[in-house]
Amino acid sequence: MGERFLVSDCEGPISLNDNAFELAGHFIPQGERFFQIVSHYDDILVEMERPGYNAGNTLKLIAPFLKAYGANNQNIESFSESNVLLVPGASETLPFLQELMPSFIVSTSYQQYLEALCQVLGFPLENCYYTFIDLDKVELDPEEKDHLMELKQSAVENPEFENLEQIFWDELPQMKINSLVDDIKPVGGSAKKEAVEDIMSRFGYLGSDLIYIGDSITDVEPLRFAQDEGGLAVSFNGNDYALDEANVAVISDNTLILSLIADLFKREGTRKVLEFTDNYTTDPKEALKSDAVNRELASRLPPNHTQLEVVTPHNLERLKRESGEFRKHIRGESIGGLG
What we know:
The chain is α/β, with parallel strands linked by helices.
């Protein structure tokens, strides 16, 4: 056994935001609807396994449209700094995890949002992986600006797959602004798994010593990797994509349960966490009295909604329904419904 370490997604397990969705809504007319359309299109391309396409590439595709409607590096930084909304308990959980074991955030979110989140939580930015975007690097031709606005409206009015294919694979590649798209490398899907592997390479960690926490389609590959390696793959208020690859499902309105799970994993490993999870599912109060559990953490668990189960073929569909419903409850219908 090597040194155990933790990697978490950001939006979902730590914060309630979907920063890119919120940026689209702030800068682009009908931007939330536009983002939902592009995000759903992104999910389809991932499920189709289009060569070279990665989960989270929505953040590439919307970038020219953000610029067309006035977004720049400074104002997306200012917006992000003013709009960090944490999951209850996260301001305690993140410092605890930092003290407990080496901890990292691997997020598809733009750099400006991760910088803002790290400032709020006091988390080291050097322990984060994120999507770099420089909206100021490329000049936008006035004619292309007008055309981007037309393409956005076309997507909103006609969100059919064929029209989106035309917009993103025929129209955009012919425009000079497409160089902005080419420069953005979202950290999602296989790129998140590569980030985990980079952490392991840099510090000499083993996959069996990994606890990965995620909630969406961008976390599928690192969740699968953690489980395949004998580590712990945790879905926190996850959607269908995340639950398909997790061995533990957490449905909760507070992150303190993650502190308890991480503490147990650090001391005892995957098998003990799975055993505790089974016991918690049967009788939460009795499970929290176990000698293996950190009693101080257990005593601080708020009287909240916390559901904890080992994911099996028998409960998977039910967990998808329950986690999906709760995800929308805690993050809102619009963000909670994104892939």
